Amino acid sequence: MTKLGRLTQTLTPGLAAGLLVAALAAPAGAQPFPDQIALPDGFRPEGIATGRGPTAYVGSLADGDIRALNLRTGTGRTISEGDGTQAVGMKLDHRGRLWVAGGMDGDAKVVDTRSGEVLATYDFAETPTFVNDVVLNDGAAWFTDSQRAVLYRVPAGKNLAGEPTEVPLGGEWQQLPGFNANGITTTPDRAALLVVQSVTGFLFRVDPATGDATRVDLGGYLLTNGDGLLVDGRTLYAVQNQLNKVAVLRLDKAGTTGRLVDTLTSASFDVPTTVAKFGKALYLPNARFGNPTPATATYSVTRVVP
Fold it and tell me: H-helix or E-strand containing 77?
């Protein structure tokens, strides 16, 4: 049973505008662009997003905090205090708003990165649900649900005044026990969506108008443990979390076929989940799934250059 509803405008106490600049001031002697950025103990990162400047935003599975990181220095600060719900996949729009998937809470929120205010929340579904990842395309935010065979579409206009809608996944999509729709991005021509199904390792091209899914021909390569996706030109970076690697694939413009051209690994990977790009470098949060003491464990973001 779903509870797809109207957006709820919320005005939580925000941080003062401009706080981020002061918060991320570089300490004396800091080395530029470190390969490893430490996060607070117990933070439990999952999603990451970057914008035009050398700042990345990371969300916490533990309590929904959003933390901003200076990629030059490795310094950071919490810019939005969570309410105890999860922050999973996220994307930053050109208005400085962060769109954040809500995981097992079945919702999503929009955070102003300048003030820390939660500008809107959207309720999608009741248990079982796991709103996992998000991509922005053609005036809308598209969210996956790893427990339901649907995508959620939310208008991403200036006033955040639209209502969310469900787009059922059809065509060649088969919902199976376990984690299904996970990472999401666009095809290189931005005419369709790409969704990885974790339980099978299949990559699907999804028509946003109908939800019809067609399996992408990857020449037999399986995205086993597929998680976050990132398209850069015709290159697709696909995180394979438990395998501690990133598959690098070359796609055709329509995203119907692709081939593996490289595999990225790092000694610092510890179950990376999602991926964002700044300059020539990729940044991946280490979720450390399976750690026996997640509330006190150390966490980090790893930088790799393809």
Answer: strand 76-80
Query: What superfamily would CATH give domain 43-304?
Result: TolB, C-terminal domain (2.120.10.30)
How is the beta sheet containing 76-80 ordered, strand by strand? Answer: 45-50, 55-60, 66-70, 76-80
Q: CB 157: neighbour CB atoms within 10 A?
A: 11
CA 27 to chain centre: 29
Q: How far apart are CA 254 and CA 63, in angstroms?
A: 38
Domain ranges of the chain: 43-304
Decide: residue 126, CB within 10 A, 0-12 exposed, 13-18 middle, 19+ buried: exposed
User: Is the predicted pLDDT of residue 29 greater than 70, yes or no?
Assistant: no
Residue recorded with tokens 């430490």: 38
Residue 19: which pLDDT band, with cuts at 50, 70 and 90? very low
pLDDT tens track for 123-148: 999 999 999 999 999 999 999 999 99
Instruction: Decide if 304 contacts 230 (C-beta within 8 A).
Output: no
- pLDDT tens per residue, range 259-300: 999 999 999 999 999 999 999 999 999 999 999 999 999 999
